[in-house]
TrEMBL record:
One of its GO terms (biological process) is mRNA splicing, via spliceosome. It comes from Cyanidiococcus yangmingshanensis. This is Branchpoint-bridging protein. Residues 115-173 form the KHDC4/BBP-like KH-domain type I domain. It is found in: Nucleus. Residues 296-343 are annotated as: Disordered.
Length: 343
Protein backbone atom coordinates (compact mmCIF):
# COMPACT_ATOMS: atom_id res chain seq x y z
CA UNK A 1 0.00 0.00 0.00
CA UNK A 2 1.34 3.40 -0.91
CA UNK A 3 1.80 6.01 1.73
CA UNK A 4 -0.51 8.44 -0.07
CA UNK A 5 -3.46 6.08 0.21
CA UNK A 6 -3.17 5.58 3.96
CA UNK A 7 -6.16 6.83 6.05
CA UNK A 8 -5.76 9.25 8.93
CA UNK A 9 -6.16 8.02 12.52
CA UNK A 10 -9.35 10.06 12.87
CA UNK A 11 -10.94 8.43 9.81
CA UNK A 12 -9.84 5.01 11.06
CA UNK A 13 -11.39 5.55 14.48
CA UNK A 14 -14.56 6.81 12.86
CA UNK A 15 -14.84 3.77 10.63
CA UNK A 16 -14.13 1.47 13.57
CA UNK A 17 -16.81 3.14 15.69
CA UNK A 18 -19.36 2.81 12.88
CA UNK A 19 -18.52 -0.88 12.59
CA UNK A 20 -18.98 -1.37 16.34
CA UNK A 21 -22.30 0.41 16.21
CA UNK A 22 -23.49 -1.76 13.33
CA UNK A 23 -22.54 -4.96 15.13
CA UNK A 24 -24.24 -3.92 18.37
CA UNK A 25 -27.39 -2.79 16.51
CA UNK A 26 -27.58 -6.10 14.71
CA UNK A 27 -27.22 -7.97 18.03
CA UNK A 28 -29.99 -5.91 19.64
CA UNK A 29 -32.21 -6.63 16.65
CA UNK A 30 -31.74 -10.37 17.17
CA UNK A 31 -32.55 -10.00 20.88
CA UNK A 32 -35.73 -8.02 20.25
CA UNK A 33 -36.74 -10.33 17.42
CA UNK A 34 -36.59 -13.41 19.69
CA UNK A 35 -33.68 -15.02 17.90
CA UNK A 36 -31.61 -14.80 21.05
CA UNK A 37 -32.68 -14.93 24.67
CA UNK A 38 -32.55 -11.67 26.58
CA UNK A 39 -30.51 -11.74 29.75
CA UNK A 40 -32.73 -9.51 31.85
CA UNK A 41 -30.29 -9.19 34.73
CA UNK A 42 -27.37 -8.26 32.46
CA UNK A 43 -29.46 -5.63 30.71
CA UNK A 44 -31.10 -4.06 33.77
CA UNK A 45 -28.28 -4.27 36.32
CA UNK A 46 -26.25 -1.31 34.95
CA UNK A 47 -29.37 0.84 34.84
CA UNK A 48 -31.39 -0.21 37.93
CA UNK A 49 -28.61 -1.08 40.33
CA UNK A 50 -29.84 -0.62 43.89
CA UNK A 51 -33.33 0.54 42.86
CA UNK A 52 -36.63 -0.94 43.86
CA UNK A 53 -39.09 -0.78 40.98
CA UNK A 54 -42.70 -0.68 42.06
CA UNK A 55 -45.18 -2.51 39.82
CA UNK A 56 -47.34 -0.42 37.48
CA UNK A 57 -50.69 -1.56 36.12
CA UNK A 58 -52.88 -0.29 33.32
CA UNK A 59 -56.62 0.29 33.49
CA UNK A 60 -57.41 -3.33 32.80
CA UNK A 61 -55.23 -4.52 35.71
CA UNK A 62 -52.31 -5.82 33.69
CA UNK A 63 -48.79 -5.06 34.78
CA UNK A 64 -46.87 -2.99 32.25
CA UNK A 65 -43.41 -2.85 33.86
CA UNK A 66 -42.32 -6.44 34.24
CA UNK A 67 -38.56 -7.08 34.20
CA UNK A 68 -38.73 -8.41 30.66
CA UNK A 69 -40.66 -5.38 29.48
CA UNK A 70 -38.17 -3.07 31.15
CA UNK A 71 -35.28 -4.95 29.53
CA UNK A 72 -36.84 -4.67 26.07
CA UNK A 73 -37.46 -0.96 26.59
CA UNK A 74 -33.82 -0.55 27.62
CA UNK A 75 -32.66 -2.33 24.46
CA UNK A 76 -34.86 -0.11 22.30
CA UNK A 77 -33.42 2.97 23.95
CA UNK A 78 -29.85 1.73 23.50
CA UNK A 79 -30.42 0.99 19.82
CA UNK A 80 -31.88 4.45 19.22
CA UNK A 81 -28.88 6.10 20.87
CA UNK A 82 -26.47 4.05 18.79
CA UNK A 83 -28.28 4.87 15.55
CA UNK A 84 -28.34 8.55 16.35
CA UNK A 85 -24.60 8.44 17.04
CA UNK A 86 -24.04 6.65 13.76
CA UNK A 87 -26.00 9.23 11.80
CA UNK A 88 -24.10 11.99 13.54
CA UNK A 89 -20.80 10.43 12.42
CA UNK A 90 -22.02 9.61 8.92
CA UNK A 91 -25.32 11.04 7.63
CA UNK A 92 -25.27 8.38 4.88
CA UNK A 93 -25.13 5.53 7.36
CA UNK A 94 -27.13 2.55 6.13
CA UNK A 95 -29.37 0.75 8.58
CA UNK A 96 -28.89 -3.00 9.04
CA UNK A 97 -31.57 -5.22 7.46
CA UNK A 98 -34.80 -5.26 9.46
CA UNK A 99 -33.72 -2.35 11.63
CA UNK A 100 -36.15 0.50 12.15
CA UNK A 101 -34.92 4.10 11.94
CA UNK A 102 -34.08 5.79 15.21
CA UNK A 103 -37.03 7.05 17.17
CA UNK A 104 -36.77 9.94 19.59
CA UNK A 105 -39.36 10.63 22.28
CA UNK A 106 -39.44 13.67 24.52
CA UNK A 107 -41.94 14.92 27.08
CA UNK A 108 -42.72 18.58 27.69
CA UNK A 109 -44.70 19.02 30.92
CA UNK A 110 -47.34 21.71 31.30
CA UNK A 111 -47.00 24.10 34.29
CA UNK A 112 -50.53 23.36 35.51
CA UNK A 113 -49.46 23.49 39.16
CA UNK A 114 -48.36 27.12 38.91
CA UNK A 115 -51.06 28.24 36.46
CA UNK A 116 -54.14 26.05 37.03
CA UNK A 117 -56.45 28.54 35.28
CA UNK A 118 -54.63 28.28 31.92
CA UNK A 119 -55.77 25.61 29.47
CA UNK A 120 -52.37 24.62 28.04
CA UNK A 121 -53.73 21.46 26.41
CA UNK A 122 -56.33 23.51 24.55
CA UNK A 123 -53.67 25.92 23.30
CA UNK A 124 -51.56 23.04 22.00
CA UNK A 125 -54.48 21.28 20.31
CA UNK A 126 -56.33 24.32 18.96
CA UNK A 127 -59.85 24.33 17.51
CA UNK A 128 -60.58 20.80 16.33
CA UNK A 129 -56.87 19.94 16.46
CA UNK A 130 -55.81 22.52 13.87
CA UNK A 131 -52.90 23.92 15.92
CA UNK A 132 -51.64 20.42 16.70
CA UNK A 133 -51.64 19.46 13.03
CA UNK A 134 -49.79 22.63 12.07
CA UNK A 135 -47.06 21.99 14.63
CA UNK A 136 -46.67 18.42 13.42
CA UNK A 137 -46.40 19.54 9.80
CA UNK A 138 -43.94 22.30 10.69
CA UNK A 139 -41.45 20.16 12.63
CA UNK A 140 -42.12 16.77 11.05
CA UNK A 141 -42.95 15.03 14.31
CA UNK A 142 -45.88 13.54 16.15
CA UNK A 143 -47.43 15.54 18.98
CA UNK A 144 -49.66 13.90 21.58
CA UNK A 145 -51.29 14.99 24.85
CA UNK A 146 -50.72 12.50 27.64
CA UNK A 147 -50.97 12.38 31.42
CA UNK A 148 -53.67 13.06 33.97
CA UNK A 149 -56.52 15.00 32.43
CA UNK A 150 -55.91 13.81 28.88
CA UNK A 151 -58.85 12.19 27.10
CA UNK A 152 -56.93 9.38 25.42
CA UNK A 153 -57.14 5.81 26.69
CA UNK A 154 -53.38 5.46 27.13
CA UNK A 155 -53.03 8.80 28.90
CA UNK A 156 -51.29 7.23 31.87
CA UNK A 157 -50.97 8.49 35.41
CA UNK A 158 -48.13 10.88 34.76
CA UNK A 159 -48.48 14.67 34.98
CA UNK A 160 -50.13 16.37 32.02
CA UNK A 161 -47.58 16.80 29.24
CA UNK A 162 -47.00 16.87 25.49
CA UNK A 163 -45.34 13.80 24.04
CA UNK A 164 -43.16 14.54 21.00
CA UNK A 165 -42.11 11.67 18.76
CA UNK A 166 -39.98 11.64 15.62
CA UNK A 167 -38.10 9.13 13.51
CA UNK A 168 -35.16 9.45 11.16
CA UNK A 169 -31.59 10.60 11.07
CA UNK A 170 -32.47 14.14 12.21
CA UNK A 171 -35.17 13.08 14.66
CA UNK A 172 -33.35 14.54 17.63
CA UNK A 173 -33.05 17.98 16.02
CA UNK A 174 -36.72 18.06 15.04
CA UNK A 175 -37.88 16.96 18.48
CA UNK A 176 -35.70 19.56 20.20
CA UNK A 177 -36.97 22.31 17.88
CA UNK A 178 -40.59 21.34 18.57
CA UNK A 179 -40.03 21.25 22.33
CA UNK A 180 -38.38 24.67 22.22
CA UNK A 181 -41.33 26.09 20.29
CA UNK A 182 -43.80 24.73 22.83
CA UNK A 183 -41.86 26.05 25.80
CA UNK A 184 -41.24 29.54 24.40
CA UNK A 185 -44.38 30.25 22.37
CA UNK A 186 -47.33 28.27 23.72
CA UNK A 187 -46.64 27.28 27.33
CA UNK A 188 -45.95 30.87 28.41
CA UNK A 189 -48.88 32.19 30.49
CA UNK A 190 -50.35 35.40 29.07
CA UNK A 191 -53.53 37.42 29.50
CA UNK A 192 -56.36 36.59 27.14
CA UNK A 193 -56.25 40.00 25.46
CA UNK A 194 -52.47 39.67 24.96
CA UNK A 195 -52.42 36.05 23.80
CA UNK A 196 -52.32 36.31 20.01
CA UNK A 197 -52.49 32.53 19.59
CA UNK A 198 -55.68 32.22 21.62
CA UNK A 199 -57.30 35.14 19.80
CA UNK A 200 -56.49 33.54 16.46
CA UNK A 201 -57.84 30.19 17.67
CA UNK A 202 -61.12 31.74 18.84
CA UNK A 203 -61.51 33.54 15.54
CA UNK A 204 -60.83 30.33 13.63
CA UNK A 205 -63.32 28.42 15.79
CA UNK A 206 -66.00 31.04 15.13
CA UNK A 207 -65.27 30.78 11.42
CA UNK A 208 -65.69 27.00 11.58
CA UNK A 209 -68.98 27.32 13.46
CA UNK A 210 -70.27 30.06 11.15
CA UNK A 211 -70.54 32.66 13.94
CA UNK A 212 -67.67 34.91 12.93
CA UNK A 213 -68.50 38.63 12.96
CA UNK A 214 -66.21 40.43 10.58
CA UNK A 215 -65.94 44.05 11.79
CA UNK A 216 -64.85 45.30 8.38
CA UNK A 217 -67.76 43.57 6.69
CA UNK A 218 -70.23 44.90 9.28
CA UNK A 219 -68.93 48.45 8.78
CA UNK A 220 -69.20 48.10 4.99
CA UNK A 221 -72.79 46.85 5.28
CA UNK A 222 -73.66 49.72 7.63
CA UNK A 223 -72.31 52.26 5.14
CA UNK A 224 -74.28 50.67 2.31
CA UNK A 225 -77.44 50.68 4.43
CA UNK A 226 -76.95 54.36 5.27
CA UNK A 227 -76.48 55.17 1.58
CA UNK A 228 -79.67 53.31 0.65
CA UNK A 229 -81.57 55.14 3.39
CA UNK A 230 -80.30 58.52 2.20
CA UNK A 231 -81.29 57.73 -1.40
CA UNK A 232 -84.76 56.62 -0.30
CA UNK A 233 -85.27 59.82 1.71
CA UNK A 234 -84.12 61.88 -1.24
CA UNK A 235 -86.63 60.14 -3.48
CA UNK A 236 -89.42 60.68 -0.95
CA UNK A 237 -88.58 64.40 -0.73
CA UNK A 238 -88.53 64.64 -4.51
CA UNK A 239 -91.92 62.91 -4.68
CA UNK A 240 -93.40 65.33 -2.14
CA UNK A 241 -92.02 68.30 -4.10
CA UNK A 242 -93.49 66.97 -7.32
CA UNK A 243 -96.86 66.59 -5.59
CA UNK A 244 -96.78 70.18 -4.37
CA UNK A 245 -95.95 71.44 -7.83
CA UNK A 246 -98.86 69.46 -9.29
CA UNK A 247 -101.22 70.90 -6.67
CA UNK A 248 -99.99 74.41 -7.53
CA UNK A 249 -100.55 73.82 -11.23
CA UNK A 250 -104.09 72.57 -10.57
CA UNK A 251 -104.82 75.61 -8.41
CA UNK A 252 -103.48 78.00 -11.05
CA UNK A 253 -105.62 76.32 -13.69
CA UNK A 254 -108.70 76.65 -11.47
CA UNK A 255 -108.19 80.39 -10.98
CA UNK A 256 -107.46 80.88 -14.67
CA UNK A 257 -103.73 81.68 -14.45
CA UNK A 258 -101.30 80.36 -17.04
CA UNK A 259 -97.76 80.34 -15.62
CA UNK A 260 -96.25 78.79 -18.73
CA UNK A 261 -97.04 81.85 -20.87
CA UNK A 262 -95.65 84.23 -18.24
CA UNK A 263 -92.56 82.11 -17.85
CA UNK A 264 -91.86 82.54 -21.54
CA UNK A 265 -92.45 86.29 -21.31
CA UNK A 266 -90.37 86.53 -18.14
CA UNK A 267 -92.88 88.82 -16.37
CA UNK A 268 -93.75 88.44 -12.72
CA UNK A 269 -96.84 90.45 -11.71
CA UNK A 270 -99.14 90.41 -8.69
CA UNK A 271 -102.03 88.04 -8.98
CA UNK A 272 -105.38 89.47 -10.04
CA UNK A 273 -108.04 87.04 -9.01
CA UNK A 274 -111.56 87.23 -10.28
CA UNK A 275 -114.71 85.86 -8.71
CA UNK A 276 -115.50 82.19 -9.28
CA UNK A 277 -117.96 81.09 -11.90
CA UNK A 278 -120.53 80.25 -9.23
CA UNK A 279 -123.17 82.96 -8.56
CA UNK A 280 -122.36 83.29 -4.82
CA UNK A 281 -119.88 86.17 -5.42
CA UNK A 282 -117.27 84.53 -3.15
CA UNK A 283 -113.98 86.41 -3.24
CA UNK A 284 -110.58 84.81 -3.02
CA UNK A 285 -108.17 86.15 -0.45
CA UNK A 286 -105.94 88.86 -1.91
CA UNK A 287 -102.75 87.50 -0.35
CA UNK A 288 -102.49 84.71 -2.94
CA UNK A 289 -99.81 85.63 -5.43
CA UNK A 290 -99.05 83.91 -8.72
CA UNK A 291 -98.45 84.64 -12.35
CA UNK A 292 -101.19 86.56 -14.19
CA UNK A 293 -102.76 86.03 -17.50
CA UNK A 294 -101.88 88.26 -20.43
CA UNK A 295 -105.35 89.82 -20.54
CA UNK A 296 -105.48 90.79 -16.83
CA UNK A 297 -105.28 94.44 -15.74
CA UNK A 298 -103.38 95.49 -12.60
CA UNK A 299 -103.92 98.72 -10.73
CA UNK A 300 -100.93 100.89 -9.80
CA UNK A 301 -99.60 100.44 -6.30
CA UNK A 302 -100.27 103.50 -4.10
CA UNK A 303 -97.38 105.19 -2.26
CA UNK A 304 -98.58 104.04 1.14
CA UNK A 305 -98.45 100.36 0.08
CA UNK A 306 -100.71 97.92 -1.70
CA UNK A 307 -104.33 97.78 -0.73
CA UNK A 308 -106.23 94.60 -0.25
CA UNK A 309 -108.37 94.68 -3.34
CA UNK A 310 -109.58 92.20 -5.85
CA UNK A 311 -109.46 93.05 -9.53
CA UNK A 312 -111.52 91.38 -12.16
CA UNK A 313 -109.91 90.31 -15.43
CA UNK A 314 -111.02 92.18 -18.50
CA UNK A 315 -112.24 88.97 -20.11
CA UNK A 316 -114.77 88.47 -17.26
CA UNK A 317 -116.07 92.02 -16.94
CA UNK A 318 -118.65 91.53 -19.62
CA UNK A 319 -120.39 88.92 -17.48
CA UNK A 320 -121.06 91.41 -14.66
CA UNK A 321 -121.72 94.59 -16.63
CA UNK A 322 -125.44 93.81 -17.43
CA UNK A 323 -126.05 92.99 -13.78
CA UNK A 324 -124.51 96.31 -12.70
CA UNK A 325 -126.57 98.16 -15.27
CA UNK A 326 -129.74 96.54 -14.03
CA UNK A 327 -128.88 97.49 -10.48
CA UNK A 328 -128.20 101.12 -11.43
CA UNK A 329 -131.46 101.36 -13.38
CA UNK A 330 -133.40 99.96 -10.44
CA UNK A 331 -131.73 102.43 -8.11
CA UNK A 332 -132.66 105.29 -10.43
CA UNK A 333 -136.28 104.14 -10.62
CA UNK A 334 -136.51 103.83 -6.85
CA UNK A 335 -135.00 107.26 -6.39
CA UNK A 336 -137.47 108.77 -8.87
CA UNK A 337 -140.48 107.14 -7.21
CA UNK A 338 -139.31 108.32 -3.82
CA UNK A 339 -138.91 111.85 -5.02
CA UNK A 340 -142.45 111.78 -6.50
CA UNK A 341 -143.80 110.51 -3.25
CA UNK A 342 -142.12 113.25 -1.31
CA UNK A 343 -143.40 115.81 -3.62
Amino acid sequence: MRAGSAESPQATSKAERLLQIRQRVERIGRLLGGEERINVVAVLEPVERGQVIAPVYDRSGRRINTPLQRARAQLFSERNELLLEAFALDPKFELPPGCLPPRVVRRVYFPVDRYPHVNFAGLVLGPRGVTQKRIEARFGCRLLIRGRGARSRDAGNDALHARIEAEGADAQQRVDACAKYLEEEILVPRKDEENALKIAQLRELAMMNGTLRDDAKIARLAVQRAQHTAIARRQETRTETDGLERDLDVFLKEIGANPEVDDVQGAVQPLVVGPPTAPDNTLVHASMVSFTRADSVAEPIPPDGPKASVQIPASKRTEHEPRKRRRSSLCEENATSTNHALC
